[in-house]
Design goal:
By secondary structure, this protein is mainly alpha-helical. The chain contains 7 helices and 2 strands, in the order ααααββααα.
Length: about 160
């Protein structure tokens, strides 16, 4: 009787329940690295490989989850923009006195929004990228080209 060969490598930890949990958290706006740093979660490289190999349809599941996650990130940008965040700015004067100034951390909020929007523009350019409109004016055609060549040859004579 011939033995079945043992599969190579480690057995996959993939389960539909684990895949659903990962996708739910991605859709909620968590990063894959944050999800995979939790106990009981596979490494991010493994999850990416599931998507590349389309393990049990994971490619489509994760693609939908990321699309929803982009929406969540865009909504968070609105929340950040509409929610003041009080912070303390500490300055040490030349004489050694420390001055504290309390106020809205506008620069920090702007950085958070700009970073998120720039990432969204790269990840989903059709939806979040800047619209670039190109206009063309003038003539391009055989007639205009022939006319220019005719004028050039007349000026050379």
């Amino acid at each position: 009787m011939k033995k079945e060969p043992k599969p190579r490598g480690r057995p996959s930890k993939y389960t539909p329940e684990l895949a659903a949990e990962i996708c739910r958290r991605i859709a909620d706006g968590e990063t894959l690295s944050a999800i995979c740093s939790d106990d009981g979660m596979p490494p991010a490289s493994t999850v990416r490989q599931w998507a590349l190999d389309d393990t049990q349809g994971f490619a489509a599941l994760s693609a939908r989850a990321y699309t929803l996650g982009f929406e969540t990130l865009a909504e968070r940008c609105l929340e950040i923009a509409n929610t003041p965040l009080e912070g303390v700015e500490t300055t040490t004067k030349p004489n050694g006195d420390v001055e504290e100034k309390r106020g809205d951390m506008l620069g920090h909020r702007k950085l958070q929004i700009d970073t998120a929007m720039r990432l969204l523009g790269k990840w989903s350019p059709k939806r979040y990228g800047e619209k670039i409109q190109q206009e063309h004016s003038g003539e391009i055609g055989v007639r205009s080209l022939a006319e220019r060549m005719r004028k050039r040859s007349q000026s050379e004579q």
